[in-house]
From TrEMBL:
Domain NADPH-dependent FMN reductase-like per the UniProt entry, residue ranges: 1-142
Source organism: Leptospira ainlahdjerensis
Transmembrane segments: none
Family matches, as Pfam families: FMN_red
Identification of the protein by name: NAD(P)H-dependent oxidoreductase
SUPFAM superfamilies per record: Flavoproteins (SSF52218)
Superkingdom as given in the UniProt entry: Bacteria
Length: 185
C-alpha cells in the first residue's frame, strides 16, 4: 500500500519531518512511504488559477494524492493553528476532492509538553469537513518529541514505539478496508 507522508514544516531541522522519518522505520513492510517534497512550492490557493490550466505543481500534488492509499500528516503548531503552507495544501483539494474518503493518520509533534494540541484539533476539524477518513486511533499529538528520538532519527522511547506500532496497525486496517471498497466500486 502506498502512503504519502506530509510534514507541515518547511524547516530544514524540523522535528515533525524528523519524526516522520523516525516512524517510517517502524511502519509495517506493506507500507511504501513516500515523502511529499513540494509543499512549499504550491502557490497560494486561488480559484482563479485553478481549473484546466492549474499549475503543474498542483497537478503533481493531486496525482500524488490520487496515487496514494493513505496519507500520513505530521504538523507543528503555529499560533495555535496549523502552518499556512499545510492549510494552503488542503485548500487546493477542497473542491477537487482528492482527500475525500482517503484514510489519514494525522499527527502533531512538538518539543513542548503540549505536543501541538491546538494545531492537531484544528487539523482534525479541517480534515473532517473535507470528508477525509481520519483514522482516529492513529491520530494524536506527540509531546516532547525531540527527546523521543536519537541523533539517528530513531524512536528511543519504548512507550512511544509501542504507540506507533499500534497506530500503524489501525491505519493499515482502515486502508485495507478502503482498498476493498474501491475495488468493489
Ligand atoms: C511562527 C511560530 C509559531 C509558533 N506557535 C506555537 C504555538 O502556538 N504553540 C506551540 O506549542 N508552539 C508554537 N511554536 C513552536 C513550534 O511548534 C516548535 O518550534 C516546533 O518544533 C516547530 O515544528 P518543526 O520543528 O517541525 O519545524 C511556534 C513556532 C513558530 C516558528
Amino acid at each position: 500500500m502506498k502512503i504519502l507522508a506530509i510534514s507541515g514544516s518547511l524547516r530544514s531541522q524540523s522535528t515533525n519531518s524528523a519524526l516522520l522519518r523516525a516512524i517510517t522505520k517502524l511502519a509495517p513492510s506493506e507500507m511504501e512511504i513516500t515523502t511529499y517534497e513540494e509543499l512549499g512550492e504550491l502557490p497560494h490557493f486561488s480559484p482563479d488559477i485553478d481549473g484546466d490550466n492549474s499549475p503543474q505543481v498542483v497537478r503533481r500534488y493531486r496525482e500524488a494524492l490520487n496515487n496514494s492509499d493513505g496519507v500520513l500528516i505530521c504538523t507543528p503548531e503555529y499560533a495555535h493553528g496549523i502552518p499556512g503552507v499545510l492549510k494552503n495544501s488542503l485548500d487546493w483539494v477542497v473542491g477537487s476532492g482528492e482527500y475525500v474518503n482517503k484514510p489519514v493518520m494525522a499527527l502533531s509533534a512538538s518539543p513542548s509538553y503540549m505536543g501541538g494540541d491546538k494545531a492537531h484539533a484544528s487539523l482534525m476539524q479541517t480534515l473532517k469537513v473535507m470528508n477525509v477518513t481520519v483514522v482516529e486511533p492513529a491520530s494524536f499529538c506527540v509531546t516532547l518529541a525531540r527527546k523521543k528520538m536519537n541523533d539517528q532519527e530513531e524512536l528511543v522511547d519504548a512507550k512511544t514505539k509501542e504507540t506507533f506500532q499500534k497506530a500503524f496497525s489501525e491505519f493499515s486496517k482502515v486502508i485495507h478496508s478502503s482498498m476493498r471498497t474501491r475495488a468493489e466500486d
